Amino acid sequence: PVPNSYESLEGGGYSGTSLRCSLRHLNARSPFPSLSELSSALGGLGGVSELEAETLRPVNLLQERNILPPKRAPPPEPNLSNDLRKVNCSPDTFRCTLTNIPQTQALLNKARLPLGLLLHPFRDLTQLPVITSNTIVRCRSCRTYINPFVSFLDQRRWKCNLCYRVNDVPDEFMYNPVTRSYGEPHKRPEVQNSTVEFIASSDYMLRPPQPAVYLFLLDVSHSAVESGYLNVFCQSLLDNLEKLPGDTRTHIGFVTFDSTVHFYNLQEGLSQPQMLVVSDIDDVFIPTHDSLLVNLKESKELVKDLLNALPGMFTHTRETQSALGPALQAAYKLMSPTGGRVTVFQTQLPTLGAGLLQSREDPNLRSSTKNVLHLGPATDFYKKLALDCSGQQIGVDLFLLSSQYSDLCQSKQLWHRISSMSIEESLADTSLACFQAALLYTSSKGKRRIRVHTLCLPVVSQLSEVFAGADIQAISCLLANMAIDRSISSSLSDARDALVNAVVDCLTAYRANGSNIQPSGLIAPAALRLFPLYVLALLKQKALRTGTSTRLDERVFSMCELKSQPLQQIMRMVHPDLYRIDNMTEQAALHLNDSVIPQPPLLQLTAEKLTREGAFLLDCGSVMYLWVGKCCNETFIRDVLGFQNYASLPSNMTEIPELQTTYSERTRAFISWLLESRTFHPAFHVVKDDASTKTSFFQHLVEDRTESAFSYYEFLLHIQQQMSK
């Protein structure tokens, strides 16, 4: 039975976790049982819900080819009471690889599944309770923030749900600002919501909150001017100057660089911006701070004048060098008093001064099947600078606008290595486990805030329950993070082997706890049936693939995405969604706000699912492809794409026009529905069957064989072979 709260718990020894993990190969050789024998061997299915029973259903992966659900599956639901489910943290914000927490480390080891958390702390929320109390209530012992999963012993005492310490309820907490009532602390917003934000007091500040400060570092060398980016940047910033996050205190500044560093005086009262050139890049002199970082409201016209003038100032430049390092050092000196955001635009390798780099990529090794070289930095200059910036609350965004080698490895030196958690003490005396994450930050309005997320999950004692609660998408994302770390600390081949072994270990553990019946196939519980497919898809990502030509910068950028993107974005990147959209109907469609949104089924990522009579949408997260077959219905081409036939389609089409046709409205409604919860819109490409760009489309069909990688079926055979060793 699942308790409704922590009131039934007595004491408890759950004192947190330490971070340890390893991906090892497990040489277990037990055969797989029938379902009834499996039930008994795994501790029985008695008391297991019908949904959990389905997640434990054995699936023969070599026989059941259509394992993909018809639409993207929601995360598994923790087996909690309705009251706890209502207040639990959203899996889009806080997600665990196992929705059933093993009671002991021995049980976790037996399952051979990683235990870890994925957090998206700043996910956009339609409703975010903001607490403005003078007193932020926290446990006196472990400093846990009060949350929906604490228990109130009476109106004056509450028990912490992490360390079980009994704490006093402050007088201020007795008043509920929402209901404007007194004497009901259990109805406070902090205790009714698992995600809240506190307005922090001075106790949480090292200095008064600073204004929003923006400094733009712009490459103005010959290659930068030739790229045309300067015109685009200046016009874009002019169009959005009023939208910069901040308030009346917002400050802004600009620095340009080539072989020298240029500052711009934008102080109020000047008739036009003044440019100061510093040629000594070994010891960059910083002019008066107040004239370079100015109040945007007071100096807005000067800022606009500079943005209008900048593109023409360097039109005829012949400077080919880049002093990026000295420019960054200058930015650090400028921003240190206040902190803020530095946005850098760079079009070539830094060639002068501190932090200069040389090309390390050998184009002949891009298709190597062996270890990839130079995934680590060539110098520690950028790491040291990044640490210095972090210490002064300075963030740096880098936009690389070069088609040539840029040594992106330098930008990833502050990655945090990921471990899975381990269970140090038995959780036998509790039925629930909680995780809490708190983030202290300064908003663009200059307010110090603390955003707190709390997640509650059941504790289980049976191996069957651990397998039933496996969140395969969260597991795959955690392993992707760990594989990136291993490719840097060890080698790419070790990282790839670790991913394969993770599948082998898990399926071997599942088989090892059954009877002596030997199956002829490769068996997985239904909850983990997509595990081999997702790992194969990871192995074919630019970050981790071998044997396919991959530029080093593209590989490192893919690594950055896997390390930093939220789960849903990573999953679309690793295993994109494929739909046929030329024959969509209103059958099973969603009806939202007077719009009819078709719901075509997800298709397997294989060319077998494509037909030249159709049009197929591939959603990869940051990019979408619409592949149009040579014999596609001309009505679709005309009513959706706006051209008479396939032959008249251009090869560089990057958007779908708004046409007043049923086909067009239906298609645009579906695509808009796919994009509605995303922070940015992806690039869009219409791909013709005979175009050279179709290679970009077909590389995402991860179930198909390539010259250097298994097909999905071949990969399953490989897993089966490894399990038999």
TrEMBL record:
Principal cellular location given in the protein's record: cytoplasm
Matching InterPro entries: ADF-H/Gelsolin-like_dom_sf, Beta-sandwich_Sec23_24, Gelsolin-like_dom, Gelsolin-like_dom_sf, Sec23/24_helical_dom, Sec23/24_helical_dom_sf, Sec23/24_trunk_dom, SEC23_SEC24_subfamily
GO cellular component: COPII vesicle coat; cytosol; endoplasmic reticulum exit site; endoplasmic reticulum membrane
UniProt keyword annotation of Ligase present: no
Domain Sec23/Sec24 trunk: 209-414
Listed Pfam families: Gelsolin, Sec23_BS, Sec23_helical, Sec23_trunk, zf-Sec23_Sec24
GO molecular function: SNARE binding; zinc ion binding
Residue intervals of the Sec23/Sec24 beta-sandwich domain: 421-460
Protein keywords: Cytoplasm, Cytoplasmic vesicle, Endoplasmic reticulum, ER-Golgi transport, Membrane, Metal-binding, Protein transport, Transport, Zinc
CDD domains hit by this protein: Sec24-like (cd01479)
Protein name (Swiss-Prot/TrEMBL): SEC24 homolog B, COPII coat complex component
Phylogenetic placement of the source organism: Eukaryota, Metazoa, Chordata, Craniata, Vertebrata
